[in-house]
Amino acid sequence: MLRPFNLRGLRSDAAEIVYLSPDFIARQGLKTFKRGDLAFARVGDVGCGVVIQAEVTISPNVIIASLKQGTINPFFATVFFNTRFGRLQLEGAIKAVAQPTISTEIIKELRLPVFSDAFQMAIQQSFINSEQLQNESKRLSTQAEQTLLRALDLVGWQPPEPLTYQRKASDAFAAERFDAEYFHPSKQAALNLLASFPGITVGEMFRPIRDLWQPDTACATQLVRNYDLTDALSPFIDATKHPILPEEISSTKKRFQKGDIIVSRLRSYLKEIAVVLDESDLPMVGSTEFIVLRPKRQSIRIEVLLVYLRSMLPQLIFKWSQDGSNHPRFDEKELLNLRVPDVIRSHEEEIFAMVHSAIGARKQAHALLERAKQAVEVAIEECEAAGLEILNGGI
Predict the structure, then answer these.
(1) Which of 184, 329, 344, 379 gives 20 to 30 Å between its CA and that of 169?
(2) In Å, how far are 14, 127, 154, 165, 364 from 229, measured between CA atoms?
(3) Which helix H or strand E contains 375, and what residues bound it?
(4) What domains can be seen in the chain, in order of their start residue?
């Protein structure tokens, strides 16, 4: 099922995807859509992506446009709507209600430039090449996590799921928690497993950063990259985020820098955990729901911690440490007290190499899409031949 934030980066699988069973889709009478259809985020960060999955259904906040056969290439259309010309159209069509909104009727009126089939196919090929690199990046990230699980001898391990369980009142008083979920046996099993390994805690290797940033006291002309929680659905935070002026930001943020790792304490099941890679000189800020960790002098590589925090045992602990209903959060102390087994460090270089390769593949994928957008813009401003030169590696 596609949601609006799944459409970032021109792709329909750029962020965490929810998977629904065929039986559920049939019972609910949900309509499905095919690869190559255009998908528009209807509210919030209004934008366009192309359906990559073989078959999808959508949330109410996504609009699907199935192009008539022979009219225009859907991959070209997606790239166009992410150029500055396409974005201007989308921004001009937004209605300011409770939040930015675009309607189906307005989408039908959006205009696209017409270029030769050869040019459109060249854009599509760039898109497909980028898709392959993105998939390779995901494969390497998964391989890194499997390496970590094998190091901990956890491949195939399943946590206990009893229907009932008991804990002493003294445990509840000591934890200052009275909710049953906090004492779930799955969490205790994860804690017991980690305690069986020699190791040290996250807090002994990383320090939390609480550097707050206020938009009303920032330099009015200084551009800033503002990352929200869904940006961390991708494990790497980089300069692909469009910078904005402080006046466009309405709340207090946390400041972070290259080499930090950011962990969302809200809705842990989304795994909004990312390494900060941005190498630009622009300030970087994000939601105050992020816990920002900065390495102390003696610590494991942040890329290895990233893989560990996204893996099974930490995720179980975060899941059963949350409180709240609509906005479940876990406390920072749960992260800082999390044990990191020493055995992971013996595989540190191997895991780092995989993550580093995943980062490289992702950068190449992004560069291909940026070149495709530039080629379309140049074709509009100058001519199709000039756009093709961009695609073929020209300046």
Answers:
(1) 329
(2) 14, 26, 29, 34, 24
(3) helix 348-381
(4) 4-114 (3.90.220.20), 136-345 (3.90.220.20)
Amino acid letter for position 225: R
- Looking only at the bridges linking them, the beta strands covering 236-237 and 225-227 are unpaired
Tens of each residue's pLDDT in the chain, 395 residues: 888 877 777 776 666 678 888 899 889 888 888 888 888 888 767 777 787 777 888 888 888 888 888 889 999 999 998 899 988 888 777 776 667 777 888 888 888 999 999 999 999 999 999 989 989 998 999 999 999 999 999 988 898 888 888 888 898 898 888 888 899 999 999 999 999 999 999 999 999 999 999 999 999 999 999 999 988 988 888 887 889 999 999 899 999 999 999 999 998 888 999 999 877 789 999 999 999 999 987 789 999 999 999 999 999 999 999 988 778 999 999 999 999 999 998 899 999 999 999 999 988 998 999 999 999 999 999 999 999 999 887 54
Burial profile 336-371: b = 16 or more Cβ within 10 angstroms, e = fewer: bebbbbeebbebbeebbebbebbbebbbbbbebbeb
User: Residue type for 155, please?
Assistant: V
Tokens representing residue 235 in the block: 């494990």
What is the rounded CA–CA span in Å between residue 81 and residue 56? 21
